[in-house]
Amino acid sequence: MRTLLLPLAFFSISAFAENKPNYDEQFLEKVTTLRDHALTDNLAYDITESLTTEVGPRLGGSENDAKAVAWGEAKFKALGFDRVTLEPATFQRWVRGEETAEITAPYPQPLAITALGKSIPTPKEGITGEVVHFATLADLEAADPALVKGKITFISNRMSRQKDGSGYGKAVGARGTAAQVTASKGGIGTVIRSIGTDSDRLPHTGAMKHDHDVATVPAGALSNPDADLLINMLKRGKPVTLKYTLGGYFGDEYTSHNVIGDIIGTERPDEYIIIGCHLDSWDLGTGAIDDASGCGITMATAKLIKKHIGPLKRTIRVILWANEEYGLAGAKAYHEAHKHELDKHILGGESDFGAGTIYALGTRVDEKAMPLVDAVMALLKPLGIEYANNQSSSAPDLIPLRAAGMAVFGLKQDGTDYFDYHHTANDTLDKVDPKKLAQNVAAWVVVTALAANTNQDFGFGLSDKK
Amino acid sequence: MRTLLLPLAFFSISAFAENKPNYDEQFLEKVTTLRDHALTDNLAYDITESLTTEVGPRLGGSENDAKAVAWGEAKFKALGFDRVTLEPATFQRWVRGEETAEITAPYPQPLAITALGKSIPTPKEGITGEVVHFATLADLEAADPALVKGKITFISNRMSRQKDGSGYGKAVGARGTAAQVTASKGGIGTVIRSIGTDSDRLPHTGAMKHDHDVATVPAGALSNPDADLLINMLKRGKPVTLKYTLGGYFGDEYTSHNVIGDIIGTERPDEYIIIGCHLDSWDLGTGAIDDASGCGITMATAKLIKKHIGPLKRTIRVILWANEEYGLAGAKAYHEAHKHELDKHILGGESDFGAGTIYALGTRVDEKAMPLVDAVMALLKPLGIEYANNQSSSAPDLIPLRAAGMAVFGLKQDGTDYFDYHHTANDTLDKVDPKKLAQNVAAWVVVTALAANTNQDFGFGLSDKK
């Protein structure tokens, strides 16, 4: 799906006949006033608080998945959205089980572990084996299978802290494929250092690669302090034996839903500005920064626009995506269900990087639409937001639509602390600063309102040209 | 024991006949050189790493208690201490069990809980009840029993962050007596907000008051984010029902040991400068800042003095105290066993406040001994250490000896972050900065060497005069 190419005909040159923005002054003043009002508005925080308090953990396919869908539907209605729709998204669910780990020799100690999402389970009594240590995934990949056979591999690479979160992409490969690589060399299990920047005794879960027809092993993440402890024990040169139990397993098929709230456009109701968040979360925390904050930001954005400016020319569509975390199930289902009108998806963005201050706007639009981006930037700059570049990838749930050619934008948040809490029990409401959240809403209001209130286009079919 | 008064005759005026320090220049130069060397010496960190890696959690009375004692004995011998002694300390052990908590209505969510040390257990199936919320212990104490009867009390007061840790004393009363106060009003259980300054999903344990003949209830601490969540749920005005299970219970009698390492004095071998740490730890972490660091600091101090200066006039006695955490068992046993020679305990200090930089020296010595303190301060000031006052209380394990009249000192550590980790699973080696630990050793070397290498006294029997 990610490599889908659309016929060039989808790309309409005529949309750029006039590419100088034609907003009237009164509208721009209203947007400016709302932007400034949003900086002290609490709605995004209240929505975030509501989802984390009244639902909490909401792993795709869990009992709380359905509660989250019901919450989203009720919240959209309570906020006065014009149309609320549930669209099914079906996937095989993965269910977490009991999780324990201990070093049994030479110095017995309990360790904090969590299963990687989509891991197969260990036998009920756990697995026990000698640990073989690799600094990186590449080292494991290069290892002689004789070193790995019958052992538990341990990858200890630590991700680096960066404002833009770029340390994540460099480290997360170990989470993805350590299990399959270990199995291919005859290993019996794998544990990785958590993909996180903290030093808390709370391991980071997250999806791993799983193919039902490829050999794999039960895979867990150790908290950073536990990975340090294991390294210190290994340094002594004696064999270290690890025992762990992971109960997670694949269950039956489950149908969740994308929850869609529309503020219907006055002139072009069938053209959509797509914003939103993912509604599911990992199950260890309450999913506050990942991604209740994104729901708060984008639901508040649409609501405030409707309340303070009124409906605009195009439909503002807020999508609370289903099961982003282990399959992009909602993203795929939406793409499939809306295949006949993909070119009506004018511009899309998703808020899915926590609750930090926004410092930059990235886009991926046709060059001819840059005057529109300039108009947006004129209103974003007073918020301390710079323009990044025109190669933005937006966020995961927009991958299928972007691949299909939809123009996207990304409001880049300061992610310096994001990976301290990401996918851990520590992802809780106290990590969300209401003021920073409000700054996000101010920025989303600007982009969303300007994109929705023009007849001009951002280009479609860009994937053809890359 | 804490109110023991000794006859005035124990207090020897003659010891102050000459109260101007009589250190020779060569000795002071050696101390200065060692102080500066200690700033880059790794021994304290290595000892801390060894105890946390090779033993780890070591709750009094647990299997690891005995391992820690064996570790201490072996480590003293390996470091070349002149005499290593084990002295028994017997207590009724408390054993942690399974711990779970969940809000069952109106919005079911799991919570992170841990039993307070010495709590009674819940029934195996847990207890379930409506939560009644009090901001402080005082509010609970003042409450009408009708409000509490049949309910689970919740005290939500949050401790404040202070360099000197003074927020702890103000908040910890809730941990001590919430259970007994709740029981006295007919409540069925109590949960408190963790006594800690962090926002991590890791609850803080710690001892509560328990008297076998006073009614009590099962008592747990919720992590700070969970206390926040519970408050947010209560704000909605609907009854909130909590279910929790705490398996901790009192077991049989257990005999642990104080582990004592002496560097025997050349001129006054039966006079002791007492330094040390507590060897036990709570069981949730590896007891790195509480109190392996203190063991590292004080064991390294004595070892470095012996190695670089040689034995001094008095005996330097390093005591690794048994079961400080829930009973001061080692402190009481030592006081009892050494009743006949308490006045030979010239000066005492304990390192039990983590691994932060030392910023001040406090003492509790006879005023006539202040010239000795001045001599110490002359060597401490270059380390950034100021003099605090002469009302120091030192640390918990010295309470019986101090009450008996022993002069004490306290090298005050920056505790700004200490209560982020204290008594949690997060008390691990990564929280210890080797450089700060080395600064501690430098300071302890100064105080210990100067106190051990004089014939002069610090006063004994001070408790009579207060």
Fold topology:
The structure is a homodimer of 466-residue chains.
Chain A: H1 25-38, H2 43-54, H3 63-78, E1 83-95, E2 99-105, E3 109-111, E4 113-115, E5 127-134, H4 137-142, H5 145-148, E6 152-155, H6 166-171, H7 173-184, E7 189-193, E8 219-222, H8 224-234, E9 241-246, E10 249-263, E11 268-278, H9 288-308, E12 314-321, H10 329-337, E13 345-348, E14 358-364, H11 370-380, E15 386-387, H12 399-404, E16 408-413, H13 418-421, H14 434-452
Parallel strand pairs in A: 5-6, 6-7, 7-8, 11-12, 11-13, 14-15
Antiparallel strand pairs in A: 1-10, 2-3, 2-9, 4-8, 5-9, 10-12, 14-16
Helix pairs in contact in A: 1-14, 2-9, 9-14, 11-14
Give the strand content of chain A: 15-25%
Oligomeric state of shown chains:
homodimer
So what's the CATH class of the largest domain in chain A?
Alpha Beta
Largest sheet of chain A: 8 strands, mixed
Count of discrete domains of chain A:
2
**Count of alpha and pi helical runs of chain A:** 14
Using the coordinates shown, work out and report the CATH topology of the largest domain in chain A: Aminopeptidase
Q: Which two chains form the greatest contact, residue counts included?
A: A-B, 31 and 31 residues
The percentage helix of chain A is 25-40%
**Mean pLDDT score of chain A:** 94
**What would you call the structural class of chain A?**
alpha/beta
Round the Cα radius of gyration of chain A to an integer and report it. Answer: 23 Å
**Helix and strand element order of chain A:** HHHEEEEEHHEHHEEHEEEHEHEEHEHEHH
